[in-house]
Write a structure and sequence with these properties.
By secondary structure, this protein is mainly α. It is 69% helix and 4% strand. It starts with 6 loop residues before the first helix and ends with a helix.
């Protein structure tokens, strides 16, 4: 018996065809984006867990980025502190050589050269301004230029213009560490040592001028005593360099740990959001077959129309 009404069948097959096409489009988009859905609605019961993991990962990634910047700054600080430390050691060696040779002809010139290195280190700059200036990053931490300027200053403290603000950075979500150093803490002992040498030279202008040739007994005694003063300044700078190194090691370790945490969370998020491409390709082929089957049935249904029977 021929069918004389196909309205219901048309509606059913049209709906089936549209569903098959929608499924094909959905799977195709998943393969293209490699994600199951484009928003949280697509993850249903996992949306809350996914949101929490994404939030945690964003915080951790922020800390990873921060530790990278901190490590860069600590690298610059290490270079600058090492420069000041080497200048103190160089000055000590210049005095030691003068004492050993019993001649100070070139000693003051050498001391002035090492002082220039120390001042350059104390006034070292980073991307955000002077490293050892505290919060006043646009002001050079020290205005000293020569041994004469140090001797002429009202006090050693007046040569430093940094404040006592210390930069603090987070090592992890629960811990913060001071990562900055102040120029006056690094350079005061060294400047005091230089001041003593220049003051002695000022007090003994000669002729012959102090330390201008063969050393007198008072000059030898004075310079021998200054070796311990420069040693003390050098030791303080070694301690500052070691402290900077320990801080840097702590941030490097924290960065490695945070990066691992971020990778773990990335894997967990991917377990929810990422599409298995091989499985998705299989579903896409099945969806294509479903579309083709629905289309063929729809075409066949057109052939059973009452209009065709009446013809």
């Amino acid at each position: 018996m021929n069918r004389i009404s196909t309205t219901g069948s048309y509606a059913t097959m049209t709906a089936n065809l549209l569903r098959a096409q929608a499924r094909q489009a959905e799977v195709g988009e998943q393969i293209q984006t490699e994600r199951y859905a484009s928003d949280l609605k697509g993850y249903a019961k996992n949306a809350e867990v996914l949101t929490a993991m994404l939030s945690s990962r964003a915080k951790i990634d922020g800390l990873v980025s921060q530790t990278t910047l901190v490590n860069n700054r600590l690298d610059l600080q290490n270079t600058a502190i090492t420069q000041v430390m080497d200048a103190a050691q160089g000055a000590r060696m210049a005095i030691s050589n003068a004492v050993a040779a019993n001649n100070g002809a070139n000693m003051m010139v050498q001391l002035q050269g090492f002082l220039g290195d120390a001042i350059q280190g104390l006034n070292a700059r980073g991307p955000d301004g002077y490293l050892f200036a505290g919060a006043q990053t646009n002001v050079p931490p020290t205005s000293a230029t020569t041994m004469a300027s140090i001797s002429a200053a009202p006090s050693t403290a007046s040569l430093f213009h940094n404040d006592q603000y210390m930069i603090t950075n987070r090592v992890d979500p629960a811990t913060s560490v001071d990562t900055g150093f102040a120029a006056d803490k690094l350079g005061t002992d060294l400047f005091d040592a230089y001041k003593q040498v220049q003051d002695y030279a000022n007090a003994n202008p000669g002729p012959p001028a102090a330390f201008s040739g063969q050393l007198s007994t008072p000059e030898l005694t004075f310079l021998t005593g200054m070796l311990a003063v420069f040693d003390s300044a050098h030791t303080g700078l070694i301690s500052a360099g070691a402290q900077n190194g320990m801080i840097q090691k702590r941030f490097e370790t924290a960065q490695e740990s945070l990066s691992k945490q971020s990778d773990t969370l990335k894997g967990m998020v991917g377990g929810i959001t990422d599409v298995n491409l091989a499985e998705a390709a299989t579903r896409l082929e099945a969806a294509k077959v479903a579309v083709q089957a629905s289309a063929q049935v729809f075409t066949a249904l057109q052939g059973s129309s009452l209009l065709n029977v009446l013809k």
